[in-house]
Design brief:
The chain has eight helices and six strands, in the order ααααββββαβαβαα. The protein is an alpha/beta fold. The chain has a single domain, classed as Nucleotidyltransferase, domain 5 (2-Layer Sandwich). Helix 2 crosses helix 3.
Length: 295
């Protein structure tokens, strides 16, 4: 109130809050690729939309297509919710489905995995790996024979089998119904991973992978070793197996991987490879002192 007992107006000066350059900028799973990151995969992304070189000229830059797919992978947003800065969602969706089915995403990751291993002083081809599975709830669009019920985890949806090297980098991804046995999914995953390394002779598993799995591994010259729990009713870091669990934790930072919305399991696997592509590019381009988080 003013001196006359009435309501008065008072000027308030607002000072803008300006962030200082010293504040760290955390990396986001939905930001676009940098020039350095794009240079690593530009030659691996197909230039043409089909197997030939005849047809209508490409309208949208492949870098914009890749950025849009990574936006959906990281944010978990709907295709129709793509920001206007990206190409039309139907175009982006078509490319992701195509690259998931023809192995483009997987080939990109295989190339980047070798580069990361060399950067860390390792051989480009791993000699040992860990295999495990993760059950993922399925949306209403996940139907038919590719959807099942995991009685142990009490999850209705699909099961993602992954083979990772000792650094936690993906070698193989297989998506099946959640009702599939560890033997069946593990055999399929090892069948994908084995041809990628002539040095591959050792794999660690949990007790869910039985004799049939071990027999298949022996036929490929791979020794399968079961790493058992240290204590049944307490939390303990399990040797070797913690590596693949950490890999799953890295991947689910990308929200699209928390629920399976895809009608085709190959497209669901494509999202896993896309998420891995993002992580590998960051490991290749960021310095060890960088404050950014892997996402």
């Amino acid at each position: 109130m003013d001196s006359q007992g009435g309501l008065g107006w008072h000027r308030v000066n607002y000072m803008p809050v300006i962030s200082t350059p010293s504040e760290p900028e955390w990396n986001s799973t939905v930001r676009d690729l940098t020039d350095e990151e794009w240079d690593h995969i530009a030659d691996l992304v197909p230039e043409y939309s089909g197997p030939g070189k005849i047809g209508r000229p490409v309208k949208h830059a492949k870098r914009d297509i890749v950025n849009a797919i990574l936006w959906v992978t990281g944010s978990g947003g709907q295709w129709r919710a793509l920001p206007d800065r990206y190409p039309p969602w139907k175009t982006v969706h078509w490319y992701h489905v195509t690259w998931s089915r023809d192995g483009t995403w997987e080939r990109i990751c295989d190339h980047l995995r070798g580069l990361v291993r060399l950067r860390e002083g390792r051989e480009p081809e791993p000699s040992a790996a860990i295999v495990d599975a993760r059950s993922v709830p399925g949306a209403s669009t996940c139907t038919g024979e590719t959807r099942g019920h995991d009685a142990a985890k009490k999850v209705k949806g699909r099961k993602t089998f992954a083979v990772v090297d000792t650094m936690g980098l993906l070698m193989a991804v297989v998506v099946v119904a959640a009702s599939a046995s560890d033997n069946a999914g593990g055999i399929a995953a090892i069948g994908v991973a084995a041809p990628k390394s002539h040095r591959f002779t050792k794999v660690w598993t949990d007790s869910g992978f039985k004799r049939e799995f071990a027999k298949f591994c022996r036929s490929l010259g791979i020794n399968a070793e079961v790493v058992r729990r240290i204590a049944e009713h307490s939390f303990e870091v399990i040797p070797r197996r913690w590596v693949v669990e950490r890999s799953f934790a890295w991947l689910v930072n990308n929200r699209r991987l928390r629920i399976d919305y895809e009608r085709d399991p190959e497209v669901a696997a494509g999202f896993v490879w896309a998420a891995q592509t993002r992580m590998l590019l960051r490991r290749l381009t960021q310095t060890r002192e960088s404050p950014g988080r892997a996402g």
